[in-house]
Amino acid sequence: MEIFEENLKTLSAYYPQMDELIGEAKEKFEPELEIIEEAAYDGERIIKVTKENRTCYLNGKRNPEEPAKIWVETLGELAANSPIFIMGLGNPAYLQELVEHAKDRLAIFVYEPSFQIFLDFLEHVPLKRWMEKHLIVFWVKGIEGMDDKAMGGMVERILRYETISHYRKLILPNYDVLFPEEAVAFLRKINDSMSSEIVNYMTQMRFANVTIKNLLDNVKYLCDGYKTTHLVNVIPNDIPGIVVAAGPSLNKNIHELKRAKGKAFIVAVDTAIKPLIAAGIIPDMFAIVDGKKPLDLIKKEEAKEIPLVTTINASSDILKYHTGMKFFYNESYVIAEQILMHGDRQYGGVDTGGSVATSAFSLLYKIGLTRIILVGQDLAFTDNKSHADGTFEKVMKEENTAGFIMVEGNVEKEVPTTGSLKIYLDWYEKYIADIREREKEEYHIINATEGGAKIKGTEIMTLHDAIERECTKEVDIQECLSHLSPMLDEDSRKWAVEYLDGIPKEFQRLAQDARKARKLYEKLDKVCDKKHIDSKEYLSVLKKIEKMVKKIESNTVVYQLVNETMVGQRYVLLSEQFEHKDSVQEEGKEMAREGMIYTKYICELASLFGEYMKELREKEALAEKQADQAG
Amino acid sequence: MDEKIRDLYQSTYQISYDFLIEQKRDNIEKVRKIIPQIQEFVLWFMNGNRFGIDEELYQEMQTYLLQVLEDITDAIAQEDRVLLHDAISYGMMEYLKMLIDPGQEEMEDGNI
Questions:
Q1: Which chain A residues are Cβ-neighbours of B25 within 8 angstroms?
Q2: Distance (Å, rounded) from C-alpha A399 to C-alpha A385?
């Protein structure tokens, strides 16, 4: 019991209240397996476990430690902060070998699906030294707050894009036999987190160049824009919502949508606008989230006035062309949040899911609609086409889908899809499952796509039947929307204009601070050039750098925009920082090198954005003046 | 029999390698396929002391080999990959190593 008590103390020092949580779980848990203790041939304590009439050893009796030693050898040299994921504590030799042999500090995530085995581990293995050396997160089924669902969030915190190349995972032998479902869930969490990190990174890379330009161009629309949270007050929740995506199957039933007009809240994705207008259907709203969508995709007189739900960094050409009501929701950009939260403090995000259609779906759910119909949401290359005819081209050409992933279809047995569409498909299935689990009300999600991939959790129907059953009440959405006021009243609008006028100065301030920080890094470089490093001077420079970096980062409104643009450079610098350096001097030199590059970029980008924003604000002021005079 | 012992050693070596280095967890299925060869080897070993070793030691080795065989059988019945790996790599392979050309055995051990 001595080791156990000591371990509780250690754990609660790193994770407050962990001792209490373990205590509570200990009182509540019901044994689900039998742990049998044995001595190995060399006298070491080993265990075997009986679960559901099956008995399995967790360590070998002839050589309990060698498999763990060899596993650690196969990992090679591990860079600092490498994320290591382990499932199982039944053979502590694996964790022991890892923590004792890694030179640098690791980020270790240990998942134990049995609270009983975790208790046994705590009773026999002293943790103090291990916890001092590495970041070790124990995730134990049965402890409050550590359910499988919440695990993903913790895995994501450990597995960051810049450390993905260093990551390792291990499911201890026999854990896959004793806990098969948990093992699959564990691997899925890791894979999901990796996919999401990679998608985020690729998206950031793809949009880095246009995102901030769009954002600076678009931020002015917030002054007269609307908030999606206000839709809850005007859209009746007893009508169905329809998401019209632009998948190839849209051509099969687009004409049916005429019957739904005035009996549902129809939200189309940007790419579906042209085919809808061509079919004589004006949706109630359309959505755009993509920063690179070409204007041609929606360039139709009829589209100009259709209410638009959009993100602040969506294609500025489209937002400029569009003259109707623009709806925004809370995102992560501080520059926009200041305005969004100025009018009223009501926060309302939309879960993006990565695509415009998933965002539209989430919007309909968030405004309280309990019946949602999906149309044209193929999530696959139905008939080997990427989109409906009439979107990018009059007749979309067939693609070669030979190497594509095959998934279960709505109509066909299997349909070809791409990696990114599969991510959206997974998102839908998870999102719908979560809605069902979370909400007390009954939700009907109908997939009326009539082709494409099957989305688990949806009811498959023809659009004709779905409209027949769900669209039974008359509603005039335009009339409903006419009751809304912009998110800012006159005074708030005045404040927002002044706030935006002050942004160029903020960029200038950031550029100045970055220049000062760069000089400090140059000084650090010089200090580290000396044969014998003056530790007092070294520490003094480091302290100044730390202070200046804090100052730079605290200018969040504009620093965030600069930082996001540097996604590529940031990745290189962050991944390099995990490489081991042999001396303080080398480390200092490396820090100075990275710091000089980083601050150089900050300075250049802040100056560039500042100038651009200044020009925009001047043009805006002129336009307002002319409008006033004309008025 | 020499060739059969060498073949069996190669097979068990590969299974052990896959388990330890590749983290493959299919040793049950793989060992199941070579059970006839394992049984043939055990019977051959039990069928008289032809190795020129002390009789008492031979008796002990017989008993231990039977224990290894029992562990293999139990492990397959319970689908216990840990016990199976232990019995094959640190039980059965020790006997096989002893009986094949020492040069070859050292070389392959180095690979693991």
A1: 173, 176
A2: 6
> What does the alpha-carbon distance between residue A3 and residue A447 come to, in Å, rounded to a whole number?
56
pLDDT, residue A268, reads 97
Quick one: three-class SS letters along chain B?
CHHHHHHHHHHHHHHHHHHHCCCCCCHHHHHHHCHHHHHHHHHHHHCCCCCCCCHHHHHHHHHHHHHHHHHHHHHHHHCCHHHHHHHHHHHHHHHHHHHCCHHHHHHHHHHC
Report the largest interatomic distance among the alpha carbons of chain B, rounded to a whole angstrom: 40
Q: Is A491 helix (H, G, I), strand (E, B) or coil?
A: helix
The residue of chain B nearest to residue A55, with distances taken between CA atoms, is B78
A71 CB neighbours in chain B (<8 A) are 20, 23
* Chain A residues near residue B82 by CB distance under 8 angstroms: 56-60, 91, 173-174
Confidence band for B110, pLDDT divided at 50, 70 and 90: very low
Please indicate whether, in this complex, the C-beta atoms of A177 and B90 are within 8 angstroms of each other. Answer: no
Percent of chain A topping pLDDT 70:
95
Beta strands of A263-419 (E only): which ranges?
A: 265-269, 285-288, 308-310, 326-328, 371-375, 405-408, 414-417
**Of A193-197, A256-260, A536-540, A566-570, which range is least confident?**
A566-570
Report the residue from A67, A70, A174 with minimal CB separation from B80: A174
ipTM of the complex: 0.87
Pairwise CA distance, residues A493 & A152, whole Å = 40
In angstroms, how far is the first alpha carbon of chain B from the final one? 25
The whole-number pLDDT of residue B99 equals 87
CB-CB: which of A63, A70, A177 is closest to B86?
A63
Dig out the tokens for A119 from the structure.
């208790």
| A62 interfacial to chain B (CB closer than 8 Å) | yes
* Chain-centre distance for alpha carbon B89: 7
Confidence bin at A350 (pLDDT 50/70/90): confident
Average pLDDT, chain A: 90
Q: What is the pLDDT of residues A534-545, one digit of tens each?
A: 888 989 999 999
For A61, which of B20, B79, B86 is closest by C-beta distance?
A: B86
Residues A283-313: tens digit of each pLDDT: 999 999 988 889 999 999 999 999 999 999 9
pTM of the model: 0.62
Confidence of residue B112 (pLDDT cuts 50, 70, 90): very low
Which residues, 6 or more positions from A549, have their beta carbon under 8 angstroms from its beta carbon? Answer: A517
Of the candidates A214, A481, A227, the one whose C-alpha atom is nearest the C-alpha of residue A342 is: A227
Cα R_g (chain A), whole angstroms: 29
Interval A236-263 mean pLDDT: 96
Q: Is pLDDT above 60 for A394?
A: yes
Among A177, A184, A187, most B C-beta atoms within 10 A, so best to mutate, is A177
For residue A519, what are its two tokens? 């000089």
Q: How many CB pairs under 8 A join A and B?
A: 56
CB contact at 8 A, A496 and A488: yes
Joined together, the tokens standing for residue A524 give 């650090």
Q: Residue B16's closest chain A neighbor by CA?
A: A67
Tell me whether residues A66 and B90 touch, CB distance under 8 A.
yes
Look up residue A581 and give its two tokens. 């350096």
Minimal Cβ distance to B86: which of A62, A70, A71: A62
Question: Cβ of A111 under 8 Å from any chain B Cβ?
Answer: no
DSSP category for residue A451: S
> For residues A371 and A240, is the Cβ–Cβ distance under 8 A?
yes
Q: Mutate which of A70, A91, A174, A176 to test chain B, going by most B C-beta atoms within 10 A?
A: A174
Query: B81–A60: do the CB atoms touch at under 8 Å?
Result: no
Output the six-digit token pair for B53: 């070793």
Please check the confidence at residue A204 and state whether its pLDDT lies above 70: no
